[in-house]
Amino acid sequence: MFNHLSAVLRLFPRRLLPSSPRTFTQTCRLLRRMEPVTVRCLPGEPKLTISFCLDGSNKHMLRDQDEALAKVLSRISNSITKGQGKAKKSKKNRGQQPCETPEQSTVVKLYYDGAEVADTELNSAAWQDGAVLQVGDVKYSVQRNPPTFTTAELPASILAGFPVCPKLEVEFGNLQDCEFTWFKENPANTSPEAAESSGQDDSWTEVGCGRVHVPSNQDIGCRLKLRCIPKGGKNSGLAKELVSVGAVEAGPGMCTFDNRHAYTVKEAEWPAVRVMSYNILADVYAQTELSKNVLYPYCAPYALQLDYRQNLIKKELAGYNADIICLQEVDKGVFTDSLTPALDAFGLDGVFRIKEKQHEGLATFYRRSKFQLLSRHDIVLNEALTCDPIHSALLEKVSANSALKDKVMLRSTALQVSVLEDLNKPGRKVCVANTHLYWHPKGGNVRLVQMGVALQHLSHVISEIAPGAPLVFCGDFNSSPDSGVFQLVSEALVPQQHADWSSSGPEESCTMELLSSFPPMLSACSQPAYTNYVGGFHGCLDYIFIQPDSMQVEQVIPLPSHQEVTTYEALPSVAHPSDHIALICDLRWNP
């Protein structure tokens, strides 16, 4: 910093040079007020960008890195001359007498370390951090690759009592280092004359700091503003201000998950790990006419809107303080624009697996202070059945009934597999699986085949990639506790006479004995009366399966009471964002 400072000082007239500590401080303040010119220049890229403000106009120049500096400086000078010419012409058109002083080209120079940079220097080398660009009498401080927000957006819908999580992406910086200040708009009766006389902007009041802000009921009717300064270590970039599109609106009051949060105020302590599984209801399904008029006619239309539901989902997820989160029915845009920035702010990283031919898929998030992602082994179940030789025996049995095989091959069901390493004990791994099986009530035979493929694949991944690692298998299995899928997992075998083999009629029936690749597993949250509650159906479809010899259940977060679930008849509702209920449990992982 002091090298840059001394270099800049040599560009000022001697009468401005500090002769005492006081004048030195004044000069430093002068330098801090110097307008910045931002240069983005990366090795391997053919172009660099130069951005600065000139006469109230923002200039953005895209130049070749191997171009001589003289061409850029000449371009800036010519741009000023052209602007002066336009100003004269405008005066003449308005009937004013333009100044007859002949136009002179503006002197534009670049200095570094007190010396003028040679015109022949290439752009890539000329525009150094701490250099000074002189444009006529104006001097700019060059900032090369400063921390910069490449994405900065506030959510469209903001509710009092619910976290506001901006979508932010920073280049040359770190979001954890950035500074955030939140403001709320003052009532409209604030006097502009009073603000002008005080010399301050009284239209906004500071209400908080931090990356996430929770507006209060006092903020209802007011817009929010976020001032964020990008930072990376000791380096800072230009501040950015975001103003919400709409005002803060009133929240729904008590939600179905508020009482559950009382059990998850703190994170689970090592060696325990908190795991969550949740079908959050994809927007592509919530907005269909079938959903609005048949499946969820009792739900207020605004409560089915994505922006509204995302407020509830983000608050619900954040309040559980989970270490591993497996989500189903996640819209691609929701993962990218909503969940990723929100959960990143709460300390979680995530991966996404889209369902083939669909706009929704599976998402797995993990707390980055406790885990790191080692590898991913996602598959599409029908493709794996026919292409991976480890499934050849199952494929042969399924192929005995072409109608059943055709039905299985039509489903694009995916299995998301993530191998995580425990950062508290390096070398200790866990395999986390996430899936959403075929939905049809009569599709028990298809789900059995899908589960057979999934378990075989998981066994192969663990033996090849993470020998000895326990399996945590989460998902919406669309299977009740008396189903073949549940029996396959919990008893490790489904007999050939199980009713699910003929669930869709004699044409697609199959008689086979199906063995699991794992010893009997345990449903960590047991078998609740229901995890899905809609107008025409309620039942237990979601599970977190664990291997009891590796993990023990330490705590199961109680589900909402029946009264809470049915307050608005069924799910989803204004107080619950999905037709499913999240499962959360604390698992003690044997060290």
What does it look like?
This protein is an alpha+beta fold and 591 residues long. It is built from 15 helices and 32 strands. The chain has a seven-stranded mixed beta sheet with strand order 3-2-1-7-6-4-5, sandwiched between helices. Strands 20, 21, 22, 23, 24, 27 and 30 form a seven-stranded mixed beta sheet that branches. Helix 8 (306-320) runs parallel beside helix 9 (332-345). It is elongated and about 95 Å long. It starts with a helix and ends with a strand.
Shape: elongated
Question: Mind summarizing the main beta sheet?
Answer: 7 strands, mixed
Rounded to the nearest angstrom, the radius of gyration is 31 Å
Give the oligomeric state.
Answer: single chain
How big a fraction of the residues is strand?
Answer: 25-35%
> What's the end-to-end separation, in Å?
48 Å
Assign the structural class, choosing from mainly alpha, mainly beta, alpha/beta, alpha+beta, or little secondary structure.
Answer: alpha+beta
Strand order of the largest sheet: 3-2-1-7-6-4-5
| Strand count | 32
- Mean of the pLDDT scores? 90
| Portion of residues within helices | 25-40%
Q: What is the number of helices?
A: 15
What ranges have pLDDT less than 50 throughout 5 or more consecutive residues? 1-19, 23-28, 194-199
